[in-house]
Amino acid sequence: MYKKVMVAVDGSETANQALAEAENIANTYDAILCIAHAVQGDTEADKQAGTDMLEKAKSSAGTKKIETRLVQANIEYGLNGIAEAIADAAADWEADLLVVGTANRRGLERFFVGSVAEQLVAKVSASILLVRPQST
User: What residue stretches are annotated with the UspA domain (predicted)?
Assistant: First the structure.
């Protein structure tokens, strides 16, 4: 069913849970897994931190067919810039499924802060799996 599974990571626990779910799906369908991270800053330090995050995620991934993508988000657009960068990466890579963690915000916090995951639902043509925080 799925041949190309992309997961967006940001270093959060929920993103790590999304990565684990994406790995399971990729392994189940013998799909290629692409781990993506959007960098907001334009400095070499920002890009290196993003690259380090991707390499850490890749090294912990339990799948054989794996790629990484570091994408540049427009910092002027805040969370919308991140969503736009991830959506563009998913479209460019022709992902069948995009897996993202969601912070599970409610009420006023959701209204003011918004949600990258929510914005991705509106921007991405591929199927999307939202992974909610798991209590331990």
Answer: 1-132
Give me the tens of pLDDT residue by residue for the chain, a chain 136 residues long: 899 999 999 998 889 999 999 999 999 999 999 999 999 888 999 999 999 999 999 998 877 899 999 999 987 877 788 999 999 999 999 999 999 988 765 554 444 345 788 888 888 999 999 998 876 5
Domain ranges of the chain: 4-131
Question: Chain centroid to CA 120: how far?
Answer: 10
Residue type, 101: G
Residues 36/5, Cβ–Cβ less than 8 Å: no
CB-CB neighbours of 127 under 10 Å: 13
Model confidence, pTM: 0.88
Topology given in CATH for the domain delimited by 4-131: Rossmann fold (3.40.50)
